[in-house]
Design brief:
Layout (H helix, E strand, L loop, with lengths): L1 H16 L6 E2 L4 E2 L1 H27 L2 E2 L5 E2 L7 H10 L18 H11 L4 H8 L3 E4 L2 E4 L2 H12 L3 H8 L9 H6 L1 E2 L2 E2 H16 L2
Length: 206
Amino acid sequence: MDDFVRELDEIESVFTNHKGARTVVGFQFAYTPAEDGCLISLWDSWTRFVRSIVIYSASRPVTGLSGNTYVPTNNRNESQVLADLIANRSGNNFRINNGEPAWADPNCLADIVNFLGLQNGYIIVNAVGASTVHLGPIAVANPLKEIRLCRNFVAHKSQPTLNDVLAFARSPFVDLSTHLRERRSGIEAFSEWKDCLAALASSAAF
């Protein structure tokens, strides 16, 4: 948990320090490579956290931040988790790709933790699928879908992926850089997302 939050802080620091970074006027779409990289890193970090908490919870009895202990139905190491998911992919919504399930997809995650018999599975799923995230006294919409769709636009720049991002625009859309830096809850959207991921992780580890 602490390592994940430290990684988020480092990513945010890089993003903040690249304000005004060079924009590439590319074929069809202008973009800012430094900020694109930070967004991809943010989503990758979240996906790895979800993967880590599921695999760790499957490996042994674990104690959550609440102090409660959760015991999996069967202890499995990482290799066994992946092998069992692959072997039982038929009839389950794991979405295996290159030997890995879609960890960050809430629907797939529910099937994964149920199959693995994780006693804390419902806590992880409820955290990831929560509609709102509490940041101190402020409640904001869960940004996971928006982050994912913005990341998809970065990775696959096209009009359809841009349209997905436009659905979340709160003001006339200029470009992704402006979208990531618009003020939300008194801070830039990217920083709000970072805070949300830390809060969601804390809820998942409860």
